Amino acid sequence: MDQNNKNQDNKQKARSYSMVRSASIAGSLFIIDAFVFNQGVLASVICLGIVSIMLINNIRYRKDFKKRLIIMGIYAAAAILTIGAIRFNNGVARQNAEIIIQACEQYWNQKGGFPDRLEELVPDYLEKVPRAKYAFSNSRFIYRSGPDRHTLMYVAFPPFGRKIYSFENRKWGQID
């Protein structure tokens, strides 16, 4: 009887360890893909691949069905959270871009032209130049100023998928 309890305890510990390990891996994928690479591809492909493999294993082997189902849920949640975080960051970038655009318009109304650099908007029009996103890469706006062209750009989906605003045309476009 005592040996049977030890075996059950060992199985329970192994299941718990497996779920904690899966949650750690899925969490790491989420952070790396959502805030470092800022793409969503890595976490989505890996997580969906793992979910697919586990789904096939659930069909083939009935043993530990509940455990595999929970682990599949962990990875699926990581993929969904990654895409949600990227969408949130792109929404933040668009909002912050609109704040910069309004400040540039005020600058133009008062000075008769757009600034050469975004830092010229501080402190009269902006408290500080906002970051485009809460991410480690591609988190800043790119402002280009030329004689007849002024643009504001941010990267929505690296390495391509850049959103660009033309101050002269007063409209958004996309590069790539």
Would you kindly provide a written description of the structure presented here, covering whatever features stand out?
With 176 residues, this protein is an alpha+beta fold. Helix content is 59%, strand content 14%. The protein has helices spanning 2-37, 41-60, 65-111; strands at 142-145, 150-157, 160-166, 171-175. A hairpin with a 2-residue loop joins strand 2 and strand 3. Helix 1 packs antiparallel against helix 2 (41-60), helix 1 (2-37) runs parallel beside helix 3 and helix 2 (41-60) packs antiparallel against helix 3. The longest helix is centred in the middle third of the chain and has 47 residues, at 65-111. The chain is elongated and about 85 Å long. The termini are far apart. The mean pLDDT is 85.
